[in-house]
Amino acid sequence: MASRPLLSLGVAVLAISAGGLAAWWQRPPRDEAGALAPESPVARLTRMQQRASPEDSMAQGRLATLWMTEALRSGSEEQVTHARLAARRALLVDPERVDALKVELLLLHHDHQFRELRDAARSLTTQHPHDAFFQGMLGDAELELGRFDEAEAAYTRMMDLKPSHATYTRVGYLQLMRGEVNAALDSLKLAASSVDRMDGNSVARALCEIGDVYLARADPDTAMEYFDVALTHAPGLGRAHAGRGHVLRARGQDTAAIEAYRAALAASPHGGHRASLADALEAAGRTPEAQAEYQRALADSAEDAREQARLMLDLGLDIGRAETLARAELTRRQDVLTQAVLAQALVSAGKVDEARPLVAAFLRAGTRHARLDLVAGLVASASGEPVAARQHLEAALRGFPPLPPRQQARARALLTPLAAPVQASARPPSTAGP
C-alpha cells in the first residue's frame, strides 16, 4: 500500500495495541429489559415492499439497499432477487439514483461480472469523485481480476476520501492476499476497532476477519478464540461457525466439526459450507452421509463455476468438465483461487506444462492457503521436482482451510516417496516460472 495510508494505519494500530482490544470485543450491555425488536428484518422489509409504489424511486432505492444489506448478511438468493428488482425499479424512474447504482455494483460483484463491475465503478468514480464507496468497488473488481497494484491504488483513494471500517478491511484483505500477514492483522484489528459496537453482526464479522488471519499465521487456537467471541455477538453467523469447523477438523475433532459446519449451513445455506460438512463427515468415516452432502453441494454450486470445478476435482468427477468450467471462470476473474482450480484441473488431465505458469502466478502473490500449496505440490510432483513438491505438500497438510480427506490422502501418498532426504543435485523448483 502507498506509504502515507500505511503510515496512518501504523500510528492507529500502535494506539490500539497500547489500549488493548478486550473492551470493544465484549458484547455491549443491554438495557434493563434486554428486549430485541419484535419484528424480523425480513418481515419489516416485506411490509415496506408491499407499501412502496414501484414509481417511487426514493422508496425503491432504499428498499434495494436494505434488501441487499440483508442478503449480504444472510446469503439468501431470494433477498438478492428482491434487491435486484427494487434497484431496477428505482433506476427506471431515476437513472441517476445513487443508492440504486450502488446496489447495482454489489449485484455485479455477486454475479461475478468483475470486468463489468470495474468499468461501471470506474465511470461512477468519475461522476462521483468524492464518494468512497465507488473507489472501494473499483478496488474490489481489480482485486478479483488479479490486478493487485490497481486495487491498491483504488483503496488508497478510498482511504483518502473516508478512512473507515470498510476501508481498513479492504486494505487488510489485500495485504492478506499478498501474504503480508502481520500487516493484515494490524489493518484488520484497526478495522474492528472502527466498527459500531452496537451492530453485533458487524462486530462479529470483523472478529472473523481477524480469526482468518490467525489461521493464515498457523495459529488456530487464537483464531478459535475470535470465532467463539464472534458468536457471542452474532450467534447465527455462518462464517464464525465455519471458522470453528476448520479449527476442529485440524484438531481431529471430527464430530464437533460436523456440528459446527451444520450450524454454518443452517445460518448460510451455500455450497461451500455444505462441502465443508461433507468433508467432515468423510473424515469421520460417515461415507454415505458424506456422499449425499457432496451431491447436494454440487447442486448448490451450480451457479459458481469455480466451486463446481473444485468439487468435481476433489471427488474425481469428469476432469474435462472441471477444466472447461475453470477456464470459463478464469475469463471472468483472475484471482489466485481461480488460477489454482484451473491448474489443478490441468495437472489432473496431464497438461503439466500448461499448469505451471498458473502456479507461478499465484505463488508470486504470496497468499497463504492450503489449496494453493496442494496444487503447487501436485504440479511440482508431476514435473519431477521433489524439493518443491515436498515443501508445498507438507504446507498444504498444515494449512487452512483443511483439505478435503481425499486430497489429504493424495498429498500424503505423494509425500511418502519423498520422505527420504532429497539429493543435493535435485533440480531447483520450476514453479517460479513457466
Percent in strands: under 5%
Number of strands: 0
Q: What overall geometry do the principal axes of the alpha carbons give? A: globular
CATH fold-level assignment of the domain at 314-418? Serine Threonine Protein Phosphatase 5, Tetratricopeptide repeat
| Cα distance spanning the termini | 28 Å
Please count the helical segments: 24
Which stretches are poorly predicted, pLDDT < 50 over at least 5 residues?
A: 1-24, 422-434
Major sheet description = none
Overall pLDDT score: 88
CATH class of the domain at 314-418: Mainly Alpha
What would CATH call the homologous superfamily of the domain at 314-418? Tetratricopeptide repeat domain
Please trace the helix and strand order, writing H or E for each element: HHHHHHHHHHHHHHHHHHHHHHHH
CATH architecture of the domain at 314-418: Alpha Horseshoe
Q: Rg to the nearest angstrom?
A: 22 Å
Structural class: mainly alpha
Q: Which percent bin holds the helix content?
A: over 70%
